[in-house]
Amino acid sequence: MAAIDQGTTGTRFAIFKKDGSIIAYRYMEHEQIYPRPGWVEHDPVEIWQKTQRIINDACRISGIEPSEIAAIGITNQRETTVVWDILTGQPYYNAIVWQCTRTRKICDELKTKGLEPEIKDTTGLYISTYFSGPKIKWILDNVPDVREAAEKNTAVFGNMDTWIIWNLTGGPKGGSHTTDYTNASRTMLMDLRRLQWDEEILEELDIPPQMLPEIHPSSDKETYGYTSKDGVFGVEMPVCGDVGDQQAAVIGQTCFKRGETKNTYGTGCFMLMNTGEEPIISKHGLITTCAYGFEKGKPIYALEGSVAIAGAAIQWLRDNLEIIKSASETEEIAMSLAEEGSAGVFFVPAFSGLFAPYWDMYARGCIIGITRYTKREHLVHATLEAICYQTRDVLEAMMEDSGMRISKLKVDGGAVVNNYLMQLQSDILGLDVIRPTTTETTSLGAAYSAGLAIGFWKDLDEIEQNWKADKIFNPKWPDERRQKMYTGWRRAVERSMRWVEH
Q1: Which candidate in 211, 303, 320, 391 could, as Cys together with 157 as Cys, close a disulfide (CB 3.0–4.6 Å)?
Q2: Does 27 share its domain with 68?
Q3: pTM, full prediction
């Protein structure tokens, strides 16, 4: 079973055995494009080319023939928006990434009209630059010829899952223009209960409905389509799993019971709690989303707390400040400080504003508490703390909204290999933090979605048997220290908020 995991910084291709173990894997980064402050773009053509390259490399190096792969699932960076010509396959503009803040004016106008309560109740989402709908409108309003092409049914929209599936299944030669419940729920355009595009919101944003893909379950027994014989695999293969990256991690972490919660540490940080068959509309700064849907019209919902900058803050230390050479250094540097920690320094990495639970587009990053004593090591430690504090912000809101007490947190993503960070997370939360043996849970979740569709795995019970814990981190801090440090963090956040307005 294979999975394409198209992420924010790069794309992965993995092939899994029935026990969930990886037997082939390749990864390749793509360019991050920053045309202006606050603007973030990707080249969708580059991403598709590199997707094909890693598929070829993985099969060649492992010796696995494409004909041996039962099916393929897709998972992807959510909200990132592409509009392309369905006749030629050429994008009209670069993909606008979920982190991009160029749509602030559009979002402010919607809020000024008093539409946020209605949009939140319908879609489960706050009005924010984060989501796809305002990005589509920006492209329609600012890129020449796009609106005219959309009216003529030749300009189409998709998040990265739709773009990859369309290309896999033939592209201009009849590729499938489709998405799933999880990705559609991130556009700010889908009615969360009806699982359909909302006509009133589309009209408000002046988005032609014919641009949008068909919405299907995350695991589609009828399949979204087949890879073409003249395509990258060279054989026909069912493409039948599609799920946004954070929801894919819910599946990979087997959070199938109500109340089970996972946190993924990647470019950003994303915590999701399975809330069952009914959506809970948050009153504490979270968003409501589809967790997955394995049957038509029967999704499972989740509360989600999205943190914009987590691993990206470590990349910033490496690439912008150049005070570390690699992310792996941070563990040794932080450990060298022992009990001292960050020595009173707090770093709020609000590079793209603040997401959950604050939702402040005008917040900006700040480092506070600096003295003459402050050293490079303290800033590194404060960066790791910031990842953990933002996670606690989300967890506190999640327990308030759900009325459920979280006793343990399953974790995954690239940063969880850092043992110091995971112990720090346990101490700041006061919870057990559990790392699984397979940390590529996002790719695994996409593979599970495809495998369920064709009967490769018969049910969720069989999938749950594959999940195993690698290490459990238990909290060691006394409550007094935990609360004192968190109070300092909240004060630092207050100082970062509403910065651009002034």
Answers
A1: 211
A2: yes
A3: 0.86
